[in-house]
Write a structure and sequence with these properties.
Chain lengths: 341, 341
DNA sequence: GTGAAAGCGCTAACAA
DNA sequence: TTGTTAGCGCTTTCAC
């Protein structure tokens, strides 16, 4: 690499016959600097191609103005949307962003968090991996008072903030809807119960059954990784038993879609024989035939709020002292669950 | 934030009665340091909770060991896969990664590149936004000899490297396949022709028509943003004309899937009335009914190669001096284009 | 309103 | 094999 030496504050100072400190102050619009001086500084900086050196600044200020994000996977519409919400806020507030993926693995999550910690991010935004067991890897952050905000897949921990939806209620509504459509033997395709999102949806499912006088049957519950492949395999297995389900409540759209495909291949009709409800309102829910009934929730807003709250915390600006923010969700009813009669 | 002062190299040195430089060298396994000394240093660093300060190091070394990635959007399976390929390599080689999205906007791309530049990344990986017109925003990088590697959506520029597939050939194969299935009036849903990927696919389409004695008809070509919405709107429009197409070659799966849905809603059959081929092999291609014929290409490998090549260039290790690397693709034939007779 | 000077933590040339 | 020393570029306290 060429070492075209960078223009520094000193170069600008020399060119203007000022001191470096004045230039530094002028550059960031410090009130004590004369207006004319500032103008001169800005002009010179621009014409000389001055670019501030963030390391020097971070080294000195002991903060990076960068926040780290750890998500399970990037390849869902939901996550991409959350992240654009985060970006909107961080851009506006002048923060940088480092995104990393745990690939749904608790082990990788540990390494992501550690890498971000080593990069000295000022704060972190996290949605937990599928199989993260404990929060020990966050202790280094807690010890240094680096703020952490969890979103979607959250965890209970003293002093942490969370941005979520009411997964219990959402699960309850989805299941109730199926029951109202006449379903009595509803399969639940659920995710790892370590994660709030899945345990709550499951709890909602059980409660809805209970409240409608339907006995809970553990045999109808399948906890899996919620991939398309798992969805298909489970339904295949189901059709080899005498379970004869008439409904499916899946904890994400991917597995719901897979279930529909498998149901149809087995010669049953959706929704007449088996009604299906998914979760997330991914675009694929409008590609599958019949279109998938699913739970929509405000991904972009989750991102925006999580980022805002985190930055407030970084700057100790938190006016209100909340620990959990719950956003609204809504059941989008489409053909996959709607029986005509 | 608590200011629990960090443990520095000096603290470790003092504790061990060594000099800071020895500790610095020991920490990075410098060959001139005695084995025993290194062991002591590592032990002490660990027990004292030493964490290296990257700014100080970057400031001094004038490099960040971080690379920047600018992609149009994160929410496709393709991009997420490319990025996991990139991550694999950067992790292995000890580089950090900053990911940012241009949201398909040339304007945003400029700001992403500028932000990454200001963060002093050692190199950049770029896939261009839909409507990027020129490469002026890369000039600052070129001037400072910061290496740039383009992938997928690439651009011609002296000294830049690219990782791509042969989009011309892929477009040619897709179109030829449709012709072999008996299609004579093939619609092309294409993207912005500023982008190599779309102009090349289009060129392949035209050449395939030509080579099979079918006259090219500009009326069958629709250049759009390739979203589901556009795909649907265009097909709607088509059905209001007397074009009567019997095939569709779409430059991505999203628009191909939208086209299928619209075709079916208009009362035509896929593939018998209209055969459809997409591009990218996104998971949705196996959800749509009939399953979508599409072009598969090695996303993960693209990411791995692009990252490897970039880091080689950063370190001036380039053994071979290539400017473009072309990877293999393959046409995945499924039901959406396969006519029985 | 402006300047002088110290130091953030690390690395590397040079010395021993 | 280890130590000394001089910055990397910036911010900020204190002085004027």
């Amino acid at each position: 690499m060429k070492n075209a030496k960078d223009v520094t504050i000193y170069d600008v100072a020399k060119a203007l016959n000022l001191s470096p400190s004045t230039v530094s102050r002028g550059l960031k619009d410090h009130p004590h600097i004369h207006k004319e001086t500032k103008k001169k500084i800005w002009a010179a900086a621009k014409s000389m191609g001055y670019q501030q050196n963030k390391f020097a600044s971070s080294l000195r200020k002991r903060r990076t103005e960068t926040i780290g994000v750890v998500v399970p996977k990037l390849n869902s519409y939901f996550m991409a949307t959350v992240i654009s919400g985060v970006e909107k806020i961080t851009n506006k507030l002048g923060y940088g962003l480092i995104i990393s993926q745990s690939q749904e693995s608790g082990k990788q999550e540990i390494s992501c968090v550690s890498t971000l910690f080593d990069s000295r991010v000022d704060g972190m935004l996290i949605s937990l991996a599928f199989d993260t067991k404990n929060l020990d890897h966050f202790n280094r952050l807690f010890n240094k008072d680096i703020p952490v905000v969890f979103f979607d897949r959250v965890a209970d921990c003293k002093g942490c903030m969370s941005v979520v939806i009411d997964n219990y209620k959402a699960g309850y509504e989805a299941t109730t809807h199926l029951i109202q459509q006449g379903c009595k033997k509803i399969i639940h395709l659920g995710g790892n119960l370590l994660r709030n999102v899945y345990s709550e949806r499951f709890r909602g499912y059980k409660q809805a059954l209970h409240d409608n006088g339907i006995e809970f049957n553990q045999k109808l519950v399948f906890i899996c990784d919620l991939t398309g492949q798992s969805g298909r395999e489970i339904m295949k297995k189901v059709f080899k038993t005498d379970l004869q389900p008439d409904g499916v409540f899946a904890a994400n759209d991917t597995s719901a879609v897979a279930a529909i495909l498998e149901i149809q291949e087995a010669g049953f009709r959706v929704p007449d024989d088996i009604a299906v409800v998914g979760f997330n309102n991914e675009p694929v829910s409008q590609v599958i035939h019949p279109n998938l009934t699913t739970l929509d929730y405000p991904a972009r807003e989750i991102g925006e709020i999580a980022a805002t709250v985190l930055i407030e915390k970084i700057n100790n600006l938190q006016s209100i002292s909340y620990s959990t923010i719950v956003l609204k969700h809504s059941l989008i009813i489409r053909q996959s669950s709607l029986r005509k009669n």
